[in-house]
């Protein structure tokens, strides 16, 4: 999915919601365990119940990998089940040198047909650019993450005064364009968001950390939106585990609906300023 | 495998060679394609031919992941085929926040039974410590890598003058001990190696970059060895692709033998200094 299509979808659905399928076998409703593939049964119900309310699904690969080969089968069923026209993210945070990075890019773009994959910056340019060479595909580079550990390195100052994460953002914008590169910016980083948007005016941000991690949707949206919206706000546990009974999918839909309604409002308010 | 066992194995085999099974379906000898699982047939022959000469095998997961579910089956067959008493490394460079990091740790330590996994530091402490909570298992944290991109961030100076990679090494040693944490230090980083060993005297280093990437075994060993050897030097392409005919395994053995002989000599020379 290219940028124009993504922006069009956001406008049409009045939503920039990404739903995180961080599906943990031990947290899904008990009745699903009768299915041959309980995690897929769960994901299928969540997708059916929410696909008109979100513009993206993010699959956290760790939750699938930990089940071994069966987990990868579940991942494949899930990615194949996501309807056309929804932006798919492999949240895999891969990062390795050129030759190996190309293998990872093939994994997620060719073998599993994701639109995008999250990438870690530590190893530098030659670990990122191989992901930028696939037409219509995206790398989503870790910028400033939502976790406590973001203080350990990302929010440490470099010689000259800028934060490490700012150096990463600046380098990223020199490697990729707003058409093939996004950045991860955590919703808990409200103090930094305005600064980040000023530094990177055009790129999309994938924003995790709303909900369970305490990020505030309205605040982060007002600080982070650009003229094309420029945000994919991810919610995982707050939607997929909204309920835990037979009607868990209905509960998930209600939670997703609340986010979509809030987003439509935030888009309308910001429209007046930036013209989405 | 714990540290004592690893040091004992190094002493017994007179080797600190790690062989990287970065096996690419498109680079293995043609006659193997008749096998149901050509990559496993290749790995099996390499392991049979080299297992007495090395102390470790490193599996670069990217080369397996890119084949999808079949690739994970091959990875599982390979890890199960590696004999007891050889240190196994999942070169997966994972890095994500607490909850997700735990899933990754389970993947490689429980599901696939590796001794260790490579981990990326960018997300900080809570992305690393979950890997340190498994008894007898190891995290191998990226310190200073061998690729050109190591200059982009790792070799950039922080406020106060130290390099980012030094900050990562210092943080790592405060999170884990020499019994559950190693660091990746590229063999091409000879200028930094003495400084790194001074900063981190006790931990093992996984050293990629000898061979195809141009690192010099003798030089890096003399700079990096400590009293317990403290090095696992990885060679991938230089051994596994030493030959490309029917007798590729014999060629691989010859290449591995050359490294082992050189390592025995370097261990003996360093013994006189540090008493291995």
Helix-strand blueprint:
The structure is a homodimer of 276-residue chains.
Chain A: H1 3-13, E1 17-20, H2 38-50, E2 56-60, H3 62-65, H4 69-81, E3 87-94, H5 98-111, E4 116-119, H6 125-128, E5 138-144, H7 164-175, E6 181-185, H8 190-199, E7 205-207, H9 217-224, E8 231-235, H10 237-240, H11 248-274
Parallel strand pairs in A: 1-2, 1-8, 2-3, 3-4, 4-5, 5-6, 6-7, 7-8
Structure report:
Chain A has 276 residues and is α/β, with parallel strands linked by helices. Chain A has one domain: TIM Barrel, CATH 3.20.20. Helices cover 43% and strands 15% of the residues of chain A. Chain A has helices at 3-13, 38-50, 62-65, 69-81, 98-111, 125-128, 164-175, 190-199, 217-224, 237-240, 248-274, and strands at residues 17-20, 56-60, 87-94, 116-119, 138-144, 181-185, 205-207, 231-235. In chain A, strands 1-2-3-4-5-6-7-8 form an eight-stranded parallel barrel, surrounded by four helices. Chain A is globular. In chain A, 55% of the residues are buried. The interface between A and B is large, with 58 and 59 residues.
